[in-house]
Amino acid sequence: MAQEALQLLVSMHRIVRHLRRSRTTTLLHPTQFLALMLIADEQPIRIGEIAARVPCSQPTATTTVAGLEEAGLVRREPDPVDGRATAVVLTDAGAETVEASGRQAAEELANLLSRLDDADRTLVLQAGAVLARVTDDL
Predict the structure, then answer these.
(1) What is the pLDDT of residues 18-43, one digit of tens each?
(2) Segment holding 101, helix H or strand E
(3) E strands along 39-134, which residues?
(4) One GO molecular function term (predicted)?
(5) Is the pTM of this model over 0.85?
(6) How far is CA 94 from CA 28, 30, 114, in A?
(7) Nearest 5 degrees, angle CA 87-CA 133-CA 58?
């Protein structure tokens, strides 16, 4: 099982790397891209939580959010739970970027999967649902 797990890990890494290289809808640094996707899923979200979940240091998360803010993709607003703190949310431009990036990545992955026969493609897509359950709490 360890050998198969390693093969899966290497293959997933290659696929993600390929998708990152083929992404033309955004000129974001990979950390910015990951943070933007996290913000989209979890907003409103504090910078400390972004740092923990990307993962990166708190200063890197602060710099990353500042870059996204400067690009007009996110904004800071009072945290709804603790008004003394700030939370990060997407702007309309950020939501459009997330949607376009997701669409492009899905299209590129579909192109990769088109290399497989129908049975293997179905198996990989079913595995995606299982992997989603594994990663739900990460």
Answers:
(1) 887 776 545 788 889 889 999 999 99
(2) helix 92-113
(3) 74-78, 86-90
(4) DNA-binding transcription factor activity
(5) no
(6) 12, 15, 30
(7) 30
